[in-house]
Amino acid sequence: MTLLPLFVAVPLGAAFLIPILFRIWKGFPDWVGNSASGFLMIFSLWVLRFSGKTIVYHVGGWEPVGGIPIGITMVMDGLTLQMLLIINVVGFFATLYSVNYMTHYTDKGKYYTLFMLLLAGLNGVVLSGDIFNFFVFLEITAIASYALVAFGVEAEELEASFKYQVLGGTASALILLGIAIFYHLTGTLNMADASRVLSQVGTTPAVLFVGILFLVGFSLKAALMPFHTWLPDAHPSAPAPISAMLSGVVIKVLGFYALIRIFFNVFGIERMPSVLLIFLILGTLSMVVGAFLALGQKDFKRLLAYSSISQIGYVLFAFGLGTPLGFLGGLFHLVNHAVFKSLLFLNSGAVVYNTDNRDMERMGGLSQRMPITGATSLIGSLSISGIPPLGGFWSKLIIVLAAVESGHYILAGVAVFASIITLAYYLKMQKLTFFGKLKDVYKELKEVPVLMCISMIALALLTVGLGVLLLPQLSRIVLEPAVKVISGGLDYAKMVLGG
Question: Rounded to whole angstroms, how far apart are CA atoms 473 and 383?
Fold first, then answer.
């Protein structure tokens, strides 16, 4: 229990050390950044031993008085544990990939400092047991991601970062206003204690207004349709490891995780049943429209960006069904998407690293010169398209079965149709980029450096393993405890506060 703060303290300490020691040795950021992210990955795997338990850490030793929390708390339950795994596994392979990839940029010291702040913020968001510190860590994450999107300081990067910052700042303002009213209504910032107070207050118009503020604010952070306009510019403009973090982790933590934690465990979905209908509508809209927008893209990274909107739509759609099977499918697809979308963005980075080009129509035949990039990209494309026996097939199948089970037959067909569109645009991407005739200008290309290859191979193996080998263990150790937390709803308060 006393080790939980290390998830935040280690990356914050690394962020403090890197700018100082970078002046002594230019290779220091690579070593410290990867050591810190490697430790966090190992630590997140180690805490799997606490799967199924709820661990509460009172910062500074401020224990609750009379059952009422008076200090800052960190909470690790099944849902938190799953998010910590996603953040830190993807984070490690992104920093490992950065060792070679970021040599194209100017200042690794600043890059790794911002990356460590990003990891600290993400871990802090999912561990926070009170809503104000949740917001503080959310802002640390957001500010670091704004800077990282603009890291190339070209016109395109700066414009994308500015748009991201304006819309992200709007979302943060809505969330902060919601927190202020939330505190006025409940007299507490602790999420478990506030849930207990809200059970006495009831669903008043003020509570509904706070719910609307949170719904819009976190939907902007998650880039759900129609709140998505910042994402198609931000993801292509950012360095590839940051694109992997934005799509694989950031939109899930700041958007999806926040929506689920607030509405299921604090407000209680039974008090606001209309939220499930909103989730279904937003999820279906994102799933379908995102797929069609991706189909028309010729920019490699922009296609992946629109694909992220579509795939996060699947997750929200699954939760909108409001059934344990839907929760299981949504959480499993969340894990799958974090892995294969991070892999695909690293693949796109490898292509840009070698060709300095994102236009797929100007490529072709790259697998002949970049076999590892081509092969791993094919694995990621097949999984995200729902081809058996890869993980993406099983998570989409569970979501479709959950829709059928709950009586949403038409929506189940829509989910299958969106997956067919997904297969179409990933086949297009593979054909234009990696297959066909190799252009003369690319005949001297070589595969990307070894650390970039290791990251792509590792994520590709994990993509295969999630469907073939790891599913039973993943379900028992990670998915089922998270489903229990979400299905339990307002039992979250009892698990955290006791009684």
Answer: 19
